[in-house]
Amino acid sequence: MHKEVEPAIHYWGTPVILISTLNQDGTVNLAPMSSAWWLGWSCMLGLDASSKTTENLKRTGECVLNLASVDNVGAVDRLAMSTGSLSVPLHKKLLGYRYVADKFALAGLTPQPSTKVVPPRVNECLVQLEAVVEQLIPFAINDPRMAIPSYAIEVRII
130: domain range? Predict the structure, then answer.
């Protein structure tokens, strides 16, 4: 039997990525996300426009996409409700997010120097993809159901 539904959100998660980026003060931000897909050597990321990760990507143009596995579930859970933004955006504050300066320590993960970009890799992730930003595109700006401004960010694996 076919049944049409209209869920509050159309979000079909993909595997979790821990994105490492460089903060303005030289420290590292580490954020879990699961809105990503690949084609060739490029990856499209869907991110909240107000996130520290988006801010860092706009400023530096570099990141590492660390693909989390089942072995990293605990670390991902510890990072889930944290933000690298000292001033926590209201929508995140209402959801219970809190500011954390050292996300590697919070997650119990080990930074590993990258070879092509400044942000470090996550030693415990078996797949670590160093990348540069190709373009940032405002996402779903004409959709009134999209409550939080977002970006589609294309990165190229280098």
Answer: 17-157
Rounded to 5 degrees, φ, ψ at 153 are -115, 115
Contact present, 45 and 150 (Cβ < 8 Å): no
pLDDT digits (tens, 9 = 90+) for 128-153: 999 999 999 998 888 877 778 899 99
**H or E stretch at 130:** strand 127-139
Nearest in space to 62 (alpha carbons), one of 118, 141, 14: 118
Distance between CA atoms of 81 and 116, rounded to whole angstroms?
29
Per the structure, how many domains does the chain have? 1
Band of the pLDDT at 8, cuts 50, 70, 90? low
User: What does the longest C-alpha to C-alpha distance in the chain come to?
Assistant: 56
Does 76 fall in a domain? yes
Return d(Cα 72, Cα 101) in angstroms, integer: 20
* CATH code: domain of residue 73: 2.30.110.10
Residue 8 domain-assigned (yes or no): no
pTM confidence score: 0.88
Q: For residue 55, tell me if it sits in a domain.
A: yes
